[in-house]
Amino acid sequence: MSRLEAKKPSVCESKPLTSERVRATLSVLKGIVTSCYGPSGRLKQLHNGAGGHVCTTSQSSALLHSLSVTHPVLKILTASMQNHVSCFSDCGLFVAILCCNLIENVQGIDLAPTTIIELNKLLLSLCTDYLKSEACACRIPVDFSSTQILLCLVQSILTSKPACMLTRKEVDHISALVLRAFLLTIPEKAGDHIILGKSIIVPLKGQRVIDSTVLPGMLIETSEVQLIRMLPIKKSGALKVALFCVSLSGDFSDTGEGTLAVSYGVSLENAVLDQLVNLGRQLVRDHIDLVMCQKVIHPSLKQFLSSHQVIAIDRIGVTLMEPLSKMTGAQPIGSLGSVSPRSYGSVKDLRSAEFGSKRFFHLIPNEVTVSSLLLCNRNDTAWDELKLTCQTALHVLQLTIKEPFVFLGGGCTETHLAAYVRHKTLNEPGSILKHDGCTQTELQLIAEAFCSALESLAGSLEHDGEILTDRKYGHFWSVQSDSPAVVNWPDLLSRCGCGLHSSQEELSWSFLRSTHHPFVPQNCLPCEAANSASDLTVDCFTAKLSGLQVAVETANLILDLAYVIEDTN
Amino acid sequence: MAAAASVKAALQVAEVLESIVSNCVGPEGRQVLCTKPTGEVLLSRDGGRLLEALHLDHPIARMVVACVSSHLKKSGDGAKTFIILLCHLLRGLDAATDKEEDSLISENIQTHGRHWKNCCQWKFISQALLSFQTQVLDYFMHQCLSRHFLSIFSSSTQEKTLCRSSVELLLEAYFCGRVGKNNHKFISQLMCDYLFKCMVYESGIEEVFELVDDCFVELNVSVTGLPVSDSRIIAGLVLHRDFSVYCPADGDIRVVIVTETIQPLFSISGSEFVLNSEAQFQASQFWIMERTKAIMKYLQSQNIKLLLSSVKQPDLVIYYAELNGISVVECLSSEEVSLIQRIIGLSPFVLPQTCSQHEISNTALVKFCKPLILKSKRYVHLGLISTCLFIPHCVVLCGPVQGLVEQHEDALHGAFKMLRQLFKDFDISYMTQANGQNYTSSPLLHKNSRESDLLPEIGNDSMQRSYQGTVVKNENELTTIRTRLIVYSNPEIPGVELETYIPCSISKLTPTDTYETDYTLKCLSQNKTRVIDDRESLIESKFTANSTAENTRIGMSYENVQVTKSVSKGNTLPVSYKSLKSYCSSSIPAGCVLPVGGNFEILLHYYLLNYAKKCQQSEETMVSMLIANALLGIPKILYKSKKGNYSFPQIYIRTLQALQTSQPMVSTQTGLESVAGKYQLLTSVLQCLEKILSIDLVINIKRQPQKVYDQDLEDEL
Fold first, then answer.
1. Do A86 and B225 lie within an 8 Å CB cutoff?
2. pTM to 2 decimals?
3. Same domain, yes or no, for B145 and B249?
4. Any idea where the domains of chain A sit in the sequence?
5. Claim to verify: residue B24 and residue B98 sit in the same structural domain
6. Does the model's ipTM exceed the 0.85 cut?
7. Strands of the sheet with B393-399, listed across from one edge
8. Would you call B267 and A120 a contact, using CB atoms and an 8 Å cutoff?
9. What angle do CA A116, A122, A127 make, to 5 degrees?
10. Structure-model confidence comparison of residues B678 and B714, the more confident one
11. What residues in B contact A565, CB-CB < 8 Å?
């Protein structure tokens, strides 16, 4: 019998954005995400009062994973950011800050929400069209003949996560490793469409960061005893591999839905064990050198195999099965009976490896598409952060292969884009508005809000100093706040946020937050410049473009809310 | 606890609901964010969902919500308009009763007594509404509004060819009210593309709608974290799971569906397997293995490349499938299996007892089968070759948050529901009176049309004349004879029955023949005979007459009974009714649309006003005025934010002028909406109002109301 319980009526809140409570919580969230942003972002320590794991982070994914928000409007915002991160790994804070800025900036404007939404949408399509176009001055095509840009990309990601606690030297080391690990996953023989391999991150905590390394092939952690048992069976040349997905522990499952009656004296265990030994004999007959099993191998089978110089590794786990099967070319065997010789695979070599206190089997494949990245860091929290960062970097590299572009980082894309939008809305409002029933004044108002949202997003990269922008390229320049009032800017500034331009190029600057006179942001042929500049800060193209769209769409969504109905049951 | 139900209470409830709903209605409407107790958030502009999310407490509110959801089940659209219309109707009623009360105050009735009196009055109004809804409304639809209807089909020929631009307009108007402002254009374009991609040619659309409506969940894939603009249409079918085994294959791929595990089991349910020795056990395992192997070999020999299974297959099957180059997709839901079966007309494969070399009959071909990766999740992508009129396509819906994706999903599904409704002929039926006098003022010469419509049989002319003669006489005797008889469920009424009635009405003129009349009447169907049986009591008391009349689905108004005070007239009363009524059934043809922006409401308002002016009965005038004025509430809200030339008064005046001079109406908004949907909405609202009015007391009880069980059923148990 089901129990009926009276439902409490829901709470209905009208015009949520006008309420003080929502504005306050929104600004708290904005404060949190803004302070985390960028290489000099402040770290957040997350812990619960009852003790346990403490997480120190400035990454959106880690931050929001453990942060629970209560108000439904914030839930929308954080959910959209988390979904973005789960798709692209990068630019989570970018989405959240931009979205908060957009909402905040239009609060004071006395226009109907539908007009604001309509105009935001027009401005967004103006931006995306520009960013995707050839004329875009803030994106650089990636030249795959050199690793320069890709390395810059990984470095930018690593430096933007201060909670990894890496020194400059360590950043260089890890970014080289990450890039190598990624390059190892690209198959040598490329057909029509490339299927990338996999980089597996192996934890190695408590070591120095410099001890991190990357190895082709796969590492499987093991105990010392097993290693010792393996050592005498050293053999030169390729090894024949059998990979089992079915349990070899001699358990007997799946008897069907009926009952199974076993007469007295009949031992099924023995029967199954006989079967296992038969299987072992077949494997030995087929000259198998290495048997791997996803689940457990029965000790007597293991004993049998090792007495015949066959190495047995069990408890591989389901996650490694697919890369293993791909790497060795072996087919996961699901049968205890006869095994078809076609399902065997091979590896080039099997070695033992020792890193720190851990021992590994190191499988070296014939053709490398799987790489193992051994990551070291001083402590658990820093390691967790580093692991997340490396995963992000690997994902971003994959995305970059698909769309071979990068954006200028360090806030330059945002300020440049803002300058572009300002210029466009002032000089060609007709082409933006088309015939959508909005007036030019309305467009100016919203464009100003939109641009200042982008600029204050760039501004959140700098937590102490002042932000300047040059009036030629619209790039981002930061300066210490205690600088004297009358200064010679070229001396005080060195390079712009992305590192493309130096202050010696006869530019003129203005404060980002001051009033603007729109100018035409110029294209500086980034292609050539990028090759000359060695140390650029660049961002992932796909993630940022999609992040921009998601942020504006989410902001529009929140602005469009007329009611919030909370089910309090 | 008991609380008096009154129009005032209902109005209060409706006004609260209206204030919520009116912010979300129409193209300028905004979104509502709902949270579930589990913490999920959902965005919605769907009125039905919104009302349900409120978990209303008030009994009348709950009744309204129940009415809305039953309306939505029928037509899938119009929940918000429902509330607005209801609210305006109640407001109108309230104003009307207020006026009456003022005049009645001198009568010094006790408050309690007045409450009961009011209730009776409401019940009376409710009956008037019912009769209006069932008779007059349909008449208006058919006679007055139909000439304004546009069609979604490109030509008026028999063959229904869909006009793409009209469909686009229709969908755009639909999504205007369903999804957020910044996405509605994109989503409606997506929907339109999807629709036209799924159709083989522009006919046979009903089948496509039906299939998509039934299986919509299986035909769309939701992806969160991407901008909405990344949503797209994919040719073929996307199954919401990954391959268990994937073996790439080129060219056409032969496919089978299985619904059981291929590997035989030791024992099936309800049986016992006795193991006597280890050898026996090993032998049976060996047999199982060999059998599985043989079946998979057999499948391979039949050139099967893809195995779709509704159950999980054991490791052994997966292993042999891979060895034989057969891709496997497991754990398909029964809905997915039935969808595939519907598209390619394939029945599940039955495992053969012996794996002979004969051909498997239950196979089909697919063009391709490959993995599809959306946001790092893998799906199975099948290029099914359709055997029906539906060309399989899937919609990939993207959005930053799940709540938004769900909203779009619901809206698309709702759009298919709406289209499915639209492409059906919508039956309306109403009674016209033989007495044309009341209607002569109506703009159409309906008398002519009635003659041709209703009496198609040869030789009806004389009959027609004869009973028109009766009518005149009736008019003299009974001041007004409105057609109060509702014979919805009796399709056998026209034609033949009329013939039997005619002598009856003649007999009325010669009262000596009453006996004979009774005889003819008794030949009628069972429920009508009852009316005759009850006639004695009917004459005795007008109130009982009223109730019995209701029982037999014959609604009767007070006046009519009052008129029949003398026995002789009473005798013939039911007879004369029947003779006067002629049953007219017609339909709103499939695909009828009107421009959006309150066009339907203003039109109906105009005709109702005209009708009310010429109406002789006060109660009827009141009802039509009430409805006419309430209808205006919807365009008023739609044009709320518009200024100047596009404000509501301007539009209203312009439309009325156009109607009076019979010029074509100028619509300010592009977009179309379904007439049948609008009509259904109006009837649903009127039904809801009738319900509200017929309740006089709300009693709060502690327990759930017990279901009244059938006595027989109880005994059997």
1. yes
2. 0.82
3. no
4. 11-138+408-566, 143-217+373-403, 218-254+262-367
5. yes
6. yes
7. B220-224, B393-399, B232-235
8. no
9. 120
10. B678
11. 32-35, 50, 53-54
